[in-house]
Amino acid sequence: MDKLFGCSKRPSDSGEHWMSVSDLMAGLMMVFLFISVALMRDAMVERDKIKEVAETYQQTQQAIYIALLTEFETDLKQWGAEIDRETLSLNFTAPDVLFANGKAELTDNFQVILDDFFPRYLDVLESYKPIIQEIKIEGHTSSRWNHDSSDYEAYFKNMRLSQSRTRTVLGYVMTLDSVRIEHYSWVKGNVAAVGYSSSKPALKANGDEDESRSRRVSFRVITNAEEQIRKILDNA
User: Fold this and answer.
1) At what angle are helices 11-72 and 225-234 packed, to 10 degrees?
2) Which of 111, 143, 178, 179 could make a disulfide contact with 198, Cβ separation 3.0–4.6 Å?
């Protein structure tokens, strides 16, 4: 019968077979475990690097804010200006001092302010230049144009106006003697003029637009923290 049907496997053969499979599975599980541990370790290292950049960014933001406040604190009120700690924006918020209504030409008062402000501004930021990605001169308007304009028309008319105003500001400060002699190349490569129209209005406590404060020009410092985080992720 054994010759006809073949010899049946002994129980011990089956046990050895399943034992070898169990050993293989255990080995594979250990390999997967080591891989998981390695991936978790790499993820924690990247997380720590990003956390370090974020903490450095916060410290740098605070340092730049304090440096700007120390330099300009006594001037802010007479300029009609303020410094925003979160965005590192120095905002000129007295529209009558900046431009005539609906015009892009600098008033005499604003020229005097810029003569004093901008060279000192660059001096304050001198030691932070390696971590500054860009300085934006931002133009903002209220949502109003005239009573006959639709919201769409008012938005784009104010867009042209805000863009023209910031270009005028940038063009003016680049002609200042101290800027032209000491900082011209850096300003040309790192300072941008941007017009936002009424897309970022200043608001009152009740949520309504503060039209006067919406008409402003801001000098905003942007650090390269985001770029550093992107490099960490790209090299991961």
Assistant:
1) 160
2) 143
26 has a pLDDT exceeding 90: no
**For residue 98, which of 213, 187, 222, 221 has the smallest C-alpha distance?**
213
Strands 191-195 and 132-140: what pairing?
Answer: parallel
- Tell me the mean pLDDT in the region 5-29: 59
Return the structure tokens found at 54: 């974020």
Please provide the DSSP assignment of 13-71 as one string.
HHHHHHHHHHHHHHHHHHHHHHHHHHHHHHHHHHHHHHHHHHHHHHHHHHHHHHHHHHH
30-71 pLDDT tens trace: 777 777 777 777 667 666 666 666 676 788 889 999 999 999
Task: Round to whole Å and give the CA distance between 214 and 99.
Answer: 13
177-180: long-range pairs with CB below 8 Å, 24+: 178/119, 179/118, 179/119, 179/122
